Amino acid sequence: MKDNIVGLLEDKLKKNFDIYYNFEYRGKKYDLFAKSHVKNIRTFLTKKDIIDCYENSEYIFVKKVCFLDINKVKSFVDELININKDFVKPNSNHMSTFITGFLIAENLTNDVKKFIKDFKYKKIYKFYLHGWSEVRIILVDLSCKEIIYSKNSKMLKRVLEAP
């Protein structure tokens, strides 16, 4: 069942993301890592006549764990916030960066679910002139087949639960 979840995620992501398995960053291992970088440029008459440009990035980290308690969840959240600091390079062309973390586990406790449901992290750079970034957490409980979303990840619900 666990590999099935990762396979489903891969199927949903493979069209728009570069996917890496057994990814390691700062000594932490992730079962799946996906990244997408989109650069939009509007031009006038020729390619050199640039009107404006903006960039959107998204990074997804998937980790399967056997046992999940509140300390492991907080550690995972801290990892993602540090990754956000490393991966986001705000500049005048940066619009947004999303760091999404998936934790896949069984038999989640209520305090873990509550922590995830209440979690929200957003950073604004120079009053939005250099864009913003968000860290989103999604928890998959395999025992009861439930998906728990953080406050700012609810927009992903339609994407993940679509056939």
Automatic annotation (TrEMBL):
It holds the Pfam family DUF8052. It comes from the Bacteria. Residues 5-161 form the DUF8052 domain. This is DUF8052 domain-containing protein. It comes from Caloramator fervidus.
